[in-house]
Amino acid sequence: MTQTNFISKGKAPILCCIGVRAADSEVRDAALQMASAEGVGWHALHVTPVLRLSPAAARTAHEILQRAAQLGATTAIRKRQDVAGAIIEYARDNAISRIVLGDRSTRNGRGLGEKLMRRAPELELVIVPALRQEAPERQRVAAKSALGMTEGAAASYLLSLLTLSVVTAIELLRLVDPVSLAMLMVLSVALVALGGGRRAAIATAIGNLAIYDYLVVPPRYSFALQDTHYIVTFAVMLTVGGLIGELTARLRVQARIAQESERRAHALSAFSRALSAQGGARQVIDVAERTLSRAFASVVVVIASNAEGELDFEKDGVEFSDDDKALARQVFAEQRVLGSEDLPGLPHWGMIPLRSSLQARGVVAISIANGRRATLLEDIRELDTYASLIGLALERVHYVALSQDALLAIESERLRNSLLAALSHDLRTPLSGVIGLAESILYTRPSLSTQQREMIEEIVEEGQRMSASVDNLLEMAKLESGTVVLRMQWQSVEEVIGSALANSRRSLALHKVMVDIEPHLPLVQFDAALVTRVLVNLLENAAKYTPVGAEISIAARLCNDCVELSVADDGPGLPVGQEEALFAKFARGQSESATGGMGLGLAICRSIVQAHGGAIVAETGRSVGARFIMTLPLGEPPPVMGELETLANDT
Amino acid sequence: MQTTPELHLTAVVVEDEPRIRRFVSTALEAQGWHVYEAASVASGITETGVRKPDLVVLDLGLPDGDGLDLISRVRGWSAVPIVVLSARSDEGDKIEALDRGANDYLTKPFGLGEFLARVRVAVRARTSAADRDSVFSFGPVELNMATRIVKKDGVELHLTPKEYRLLAVLVLNAGKVMTHRQLLHEVWGPTQTENSHYLRVYMGHLRAKLERDPAQPEYLLTETAVGYRLVGL
To answer: Cα angle vertex A579, ends A577, A584, to 5°?
Structure first.
């Protein structure tokens, strides 16, 4: 992918190359001036040759870079023997077309400029003359490399040739004896291997052999072999040459791989940094598409999935055929990278799923333009790494959005709760005042007349009725707002019936109350306060809608997987066919009844029972009156520890 | 409503709402109490410290802080009965107030008759606790702490050790609302304070043995979601 050249026009950033001299700060300043004059970004790069750099020199370079970073540059340090190569690579990775270079920014500064020109003619070089304070003058230097891609190989063979001539010269001048010459030849092979690679090394070894045979081995100046023990010498020389060539070549390959993986690691970390700076899915996708399109020199598109798990093919300037879409959906659904088996029928895009830790977030598609089909599998493999970064970034922004929503929900719930609390306080406090002050008149001396007493008592009763209505309203509001948290505990049915009867004692004073609880009922899990409220509402309804002296019965019994609690009366019963409608809010048995109430009681009962996973129904019979039945699910009550043996004795 | 004057007793009423403070004071004064008023946590603590009252009536929602803090502070130096008034119907506040040492609570709006009854119980519980007798009785039940014998209608009953202990704790705190946590701590120990279902089971046993109608208890009363209270002693 680095073979593709990029000539970005207009807003391309500027790269300045920082060496190890203090004067290189001028290069930095020049780049800064250019960048700010044109309003473009700038980078500062220092390449450390692997082997030679004193600590002091490194410090200088780092200081210059640090200042550059403070001045807004993107800074980078590369460890590479091939300085020019590192610069070119960095420029290509960052779509940089202009490079600012000190005149003697490295020990072979001018050489570096020339190397850059030769190897990357598309780059525009700006040389800052050394030790000059004025603005840099731009020199556009353009040169084409004559050797092109074969340049490296040619140099290797040239080196080989050179070595051979040296060896020949040494022999011709009789500088050393034949044995030392053989040693020199081995050394020469090693040197060539180091500089030119395996083929040049083997060529050198063979050339050496020929020279040795021709010049040294008798008969001299002939390739003929009289003494067969030279065959062993030749074999050894050839083998050693081959071995050295092989080993050196392996070393070179490993070094190249290391460099390549370092570059990839840099590119990946830069990519992941860029993604992590993005706050929304839109921005993540934009950055990913821009960066990858540049890096792969092809159109790369991120097709994200929405909340319903469908891919969003709406992309600016990109049209997907139905086949493409089908392929994308398949890759997305199966969560696999396309393999070679998919290639023959492959339409126009290579597809890679965006994986994250929990679910697929979409698909990355790379356009297979002319000539890219050959490298497709390799591209896809590399793209896969980027895809997982994109997937993770999308997941991160997804959860950021989720947590923001959750915060909002918590905030609005808090607001609702405090509103209800304030409402409750503001309504209950004046009511307490009315009821309490009225009542306190009863305690004052001199005592009131009977008539006055009765009026005061009516004020108190009205106040209490109003207070009950306020309670119902607030309770309904609380249940409606969904902020009620059930305090589920293992409760005794008998006890909750007892509490309900105690709470509605005053309303039931003029009625006959029957209680029928099945013995040995298990504990049932519910919110005691709320279930007591249901029973109180039912009992008070029964008292309200039946004549004085009517019988009201409350019963509890076991049914299948549930406990059934019922409140029945022998009053006039419910309007036939309206039983369900009673549970609606503000519903009342008779619309113009003189009986007070807002019709919230049964709606509250139903909300509470349903919140417990139970059910409540009303029924009416010809002879019996109204009956309200609620069922609560049975569970597995926890054991009671501590006194089991005595309990057994008791029961 | 019967009115039995309780003479020479002092009460501090801590309540920021003037109308409620007024009728509570009026009602207490009509019963012969000498009443000092406070409208904030700070002045409530000062008044309680200075007046050494026989009763504190406390509103939980005060302008300068939470009435719960006052309970903790006062309990640091005094066992004076504290009756809490609360506009909040949330059981959590009541439980918290009781756990911190309040004797009783009333939810606004409350009836004055009920309020005065609770005040009487709270004050009497304190005096009876002072001259502790070993024989207690409520309704048909008689409990002898010295012999650990419990009788109903004169007939000796068999209680298990835990049942006896639960009854004894309620008797010793008669009139006071005991939270689930307090009862579990007293009867089952500090590690079992979350197992409120133990109480439901044992309270059921006690009611079955001591009450005339366990479903409509007269003495072992339930304070829904808060705890239990023994009355009638």
So the answer is: 120
